[in-house]
Amino acid sequence: MMSKLELKNKSFPIREYLIQLAKKYGTPLYVYDSCKIKKQYIKMKNAFSGIKNFIINYACKANTNLNILKFLQNLGSGLDTVSIQEVELGLKAGFHPKKILFTPNCVSIQEIKKAVDFGVRINLDNLSILEQFGEYYPDYAIGVRINPHIMAGGNSKISVGHIDSKFGISYYQIPHIKRILNNTGLKIEGFHMHTGSDISNIKVFLSGAKILFQIAIDFPNLDYINFGSGFKVPYRKNDLKTDLNSLSSSITKEFSNFCSNYGNQITLIFEPGKFIVSESGYFLVTVNVIKHTTSTVFAGVNSGFNHFLRPMFYDAYHCIENISNPNGRFRFYTVVGYICESDTFGLNRKVKEIREGDILCIKNAGAYCFSMSSNYNSRYKPSEVMIFKGKDFLIRKRETMQDILRNIIDIYNMERWQSG
Ligand SMILES: *Cc1c(COP(=O)(O)O)cnc(C)c1O
């Protein structure tokens, strides 16, 4: 087992260590470096240190492993959740209910009632639900997600703040919100927006912020304003990323102006997912076969979009390195998975010569990777390892056939099923 120091000194930070982990735990394997998670958390915290009441709510749909949640809880983070199951995981991880914000979309009023039972903060984005909620719980102050009508985000699937998006309540409908508050007695404790992921243009944040300030000034007794997320991280060399410092200096200025106009130092919330965990993650796979066709060389690996969906679903680019042949010469490969349909990790990539049995490392695998995995093709979900205090810990076991069959009821074999 290597020390923390050794992890830091590698040129590709933890190449040899990753190979050891692949051998120790087998592949496919997700590895998360908790040092990197902490670094990102502190970086954001520091960037906004000019704001007196500043809170980071980690958006846990990026990675919900309980150990990641506990790690962030220990750092002082709050939690952004989008399903009642994520709320329950957050509570299990030890988050205080008031540090959990539940921002559902198109869920039933029953699910929202469960969130009330858990005592977490709730953020609604639908007039019909707002009205029903007000009838049941006029004394339970809530947040409201505003749709600021902004087209943002790296991909149409993750652009969620534009006029035709299913998210949020249009800011033109503020009069309707006010009517519901008057009719039910409900109080608003915060306003929220989240316009999408992968935003590299900070003007987007600022124009959204202006809209929320204009709305918020009319509502006394607010606790917070929540600007959501969309922080972009680099996926390759020279890639764009959100310029945190220029964003924070503008936001800090505008927010303190707002607070003095408002007459109260309320809380500012951001809810990053990707920013916190993306770069902490490495996905390790083994090359099963090299296959030459008339046009390309395929490297076929022991995983697929069942484990790692982003390239196929979002056209996401993830760096791929051959960590077991660092001295090989560069050649071009199309790296593909074993799923029986198109299943490409990377097209025509320049990678150190790949041989059957080599271990490839796919980077930026901490966010929206394991959490989007499935059992398609009846494959087992991979295991996860966390590097924590300089040691590696298995934080999720690889699945087995038992997991695949767990909820199947075999009506052809009732007797065996009944006797357990
Ligand atoms: C997904 C989501 C986030 C996190 O987005 P990232 O791009 O991962 O930072 C934040 N807030 C809400 C409401 C979300 O749905």
Task: Annotate the secondary structure layout.
Layout: H1 4-9, H2 15-25, E1 29-33, H3 34-47, E2 54-59, H4 66-75, E3 78-81, H5 84-92, E4 100-102, H6 109-118, E5 121-124, H7 127-136, E6 142-147, E7 169-170, H8 174-184, E8 188-192, H9 202-216, E9 224-226, H10 244-262, E10 267-270, H11 274-277, E11 281-292, E12 297-301, H12 310-314, E13 320-322, E14 330-336, E15 344-352, E16 359-363, E17 383-388, E18 391-396, H13 401-405, H14 414-418
Parallel strand pairs: 1-17, 2-3, 2-10, 3-4, 4-5, 5-6, 6-7, 6-8, 8-9, 9-10, 12-14
Antiparallel strand pairs: 1-11, 11-12, 11-16, 13-16, 14-15, 17-18
Helix pairs in contact: 3-4, 7-8, 9-10
Bound molecules: pyridoxal-5'-phosphate.
Can you give a write-up of this model?
- With 420 residues, this protein is of the alpha/beta class.
- It folds into 2 domains: 4-29 and 278-405, Beta Barrel (Lyase, Ornithine Decarboxylase, Chain A, domain 1), CATH 2.40.37.10; 34-276, Alpha-Beta Barrel (TIM Barrel).
- The protein is 32% helix and 23% strand.
- The protein has 14 helices and 18 strands.
- The protein has helices spanning 4-9, 15-25, 34-47, 66-75, 84-92, 109-118, 127-136, 174-184, 202-216, 244-262, 274-277, 310-314, 401-405, 414-418; strands spanning 29-33, 54-59, 78-81, 100-102, 121-124, 142-147, 169-170, 188-192, 224-226, 267-270, 281-292, 297-301, 320-322, 330-336, 344-352, 359-363, 383-388, 391-396.
- Strands 1, 11, 12, 13, 14, 15, 16, 17 and 18 form a 9-stranded mixed beta sheet that branches. An 8-stranded parallel beta barrel has the order 2-3-4-5-6-8-9-10, surrounded by 6 helices.
- Helix 3 (34-47) runs parallel beside helix 4 (66-75), helix 7 runs parallel beside helix 8 and helix 9 (202-216) packs parallel to helix 10.
- The radius of gyration is 23 Å and the shape is globular.
- Residues 1-6 have low confidence and may be disordered.
- Bound molecules: pyridoxal-5'-phosphate.
- Pyridoxal-5'-phosphate (PLP) binds at residues 59, 61-62, 80, 82, 103, 194, 197, 228-231, 271-275, 367.
